[in-house]
Amino acid sequence: MTIALFCAGVFSLSLLIYPYAIYPALLRLFPRAPVVGGGQGGANTPITLVFSAFNEARSIQEKLENIARLKARHPDLEVLAYDDGSSDGTLAAMQARPELLEVIVGEGRQGKAHGMKKLAARAKGDIVIFTDANVLLDEDAVDRIRFWHGDPDVGGLCGNLRYLGADTSTTASVGGAYWRLEEKIKDMEAQTGSVMGADGSIFAIRRALYPDFPDTVLDDFTVSMNVVFRGFRLIKCNDVIAYERLVASRSDEFSRKVRIAARAFHTHQHLSPQLGRMSLLNRFKYVSHKLLRWFGGLFLILALLSFLGFCFALSLWLGVLAVILLILTVTLASRTGFTPLDSIFEIALSMIATLWGVIKAIRGQTFQTWVPAASR
């Protein structure tokens, strides 16, 4: 029993760290698949930029200024925005700039996926750039997106999202570190073929590849994975740069993780038939990058229980001491501060939030609408 508990703890811990350490190491073993870019297909391709907004009064003016700079450089850039029932002046601010963008007004709260579908249906560009209302694009982004789509094998791309405000709290610091690791893993996936899904902050696809889907799924995940399903490459391009502010509040980030995880796993359930038809390499990457990561909180709990059981199996007093140390560690780590202990607690809390979101999805709960984080 003692050996079994120890082995169970080691196995659970291995599954916990696999998506972040072991999987990237394995990716280095696969053959490289370079992307050419350029050519005749990208230089003058019409492009549409789309985003959905809800109560973004704090960031919408900065977004409009960013669009103005993009339009000054690319007068032919079509920009479409969807307002999902804002009540804070977001809609008025966007409608005041008709020279920059066309605004589609929703009928109450319908959610981002609903809005993005309306925008994609109205888009005239052969390439559609998807972004968020609080995300700013580098002025070179449009040119670089055109360039990479010059490769006929490329159906879409993920941009390079750079987070701002990592020094404002431990939550933001850990969030920034997590995203830097995520960016590196996407780089490595792209070097072997395709990335397993894009983040909604900045990605682009050929409009002809836009799929139909229900309003309850994650539109960015669904749309970007359809590129892979259709036999094209979804790549990662570090010269397509966007900027976004990190969430600084622990409670805001926990709620955001729960919502995103619930929608992501619900999307996984919706896409299951197509996922099963992917190539063996892509299925390996998907399970490693997505599926195992969603259950990281479960592996964390199993590892803790196994090692505690191991301590109790060795000695009652050793088990009691291990429980006391665990309680003290959690108590100290839960206090906000820039310490390694606090960062570890933040990572664990993030995994638990993700697991809780997955459980909600398994139980049939979905999240169709969103509310911007107050601490962003």
Quote the CATH topology of the domain at 47-248: Spore Coat Polysaccharide Biosynthesis Protein SpsA, Chain A
Mean pLDDT: 89
Structure class: alpha/beta
Strand order of the largest sheet: 3-2-1-4-7-6-8-5
Overall form: globular
**What's the alpha carbon Rg, rounded to whole Å?**
22 Å
Distance between the termini: 48 Å
- Number of distinct beta strands: 8
> What is the fourth-level CATH superfamily of the domain at 47-248?
Spore Coat Polysaccharide Biosynthesis Protein SpsA, Chain A
**Tally the helices: what do you get?**
12
The CATH top-level class label of the domain at 47-248: Alpha Beta
CATH architecture of the domain at 47-248: Alpha-Beta Complex
Proportion of residues in β-strands: 5-15%
Pfam family, one: Glycos_transf_2
Organism: Gemmobacter lanyuensis
GO molecular function, one term: glycosyltransferase activity
Transmembrane segments: 291-310, 317-338, 344-362
Structure explained in plain terms:
It comes from Gemmobacter lanyuensis. There is one protein chain. 42% of the residues are buried. This protein has a domain at 47-248: Spore Coat Polysaccharide Biosynthesis Protein SpsA, Chain A (Alpha-Beta Complex). The mean pLDDT is 89. An 8-stranded mixed β-sheet has the order 3-2-1-4-7-6-8-5, sandwiched between helices. It is built from 12 helices and 8 strands. The chain is an alpha/beta fold and 376 residues long. Helix 3 links the parallel strand 2 and strand 3 (102-105). 53% of the residues lie in helices and 14% in strands.
